[in-house]
Automatic annotation (TrEMBL):
Transmembrane stretches, start-end: 12-33, 39-57
Source organism superkingdom: Bacteria
Name of the protein in its database record: PH domain-containing protein
Keywords tagged on the record: Membrane, Transmembrane, Transmembrane helix
């Protein structure tokens, strides 16, 4: 399974941040060429800003699978690889959205449940693990979540037939 997005930060937010950073960089380049600012800090700040925009632009929950595991991510903040034999079940569920653009709610270490999201999801893909932990990852819709869950279930079935 190739890496697929479960959900992304909304386009309007991504374009707004991109335009704000671009306007700031245009101002910085202007004052640098006019001789008011030293070029070295300007170049460093420009690179940092561009890296930030690229990370923000690509932000979103991603799911990918191989023959024996599934990888869940919210780059660059969170990443988890789960072996198929650790998964008790996979479900698609409605969920209360985060009160911010991206991040997490909960902790696997403290409460045993975590919700990872980007984009104010009201649906999630829930992974119920054998050790009673629950990992929920935001998806754009219940339909999208079901599509991803079906693909993951087929990978799980193939994995269990290879082991047996």
């Amino acid at each position: 399974m190739e890496k697929v997005y479960g959900n992304r930060i909304p386009s309007a937010y991504r374009w707004t941040v991109g335009l704000l950073v671009a306007m700031s960089l245009i101002f910085l380049v202007t004052v640098t060429f006019s001789g008011l600012v030293n070029p070295l800090p300007s170049v460093i700040l420009t690179i940092i800003c561009l890296v930030f925009v690229i990370i923000y632009w690509r932000a979103g929950t991603t799911v990918s699978a191989n023959s024996n595991s599934v990888q869940l991510q919210l780059p660059p903040l969170w990443r988890k690889t789960i072996q198929f034999e650790e998964i008790r079940s996979i479900a698609v569920e409605p969920i209360k959205p985060l009160e911010r653009e991206w991040g997490n709610r909960g902790s696997l270490k403290r409460g045993g449940e975590i919700f990872i999201d980007a984009g104010q999801s009201t649906s999630c893909l829930a992974f119920y693990l054998i050790d009673r932990k629950v990992i929920r990852i935001g998806v754009s819709s219940l339909k999208r979540g079901q599509e991803i869950a079906n693909v993951l279930e087929s990978h799980r079935e193939k994995s269990s037939t290879v082991v047996n």
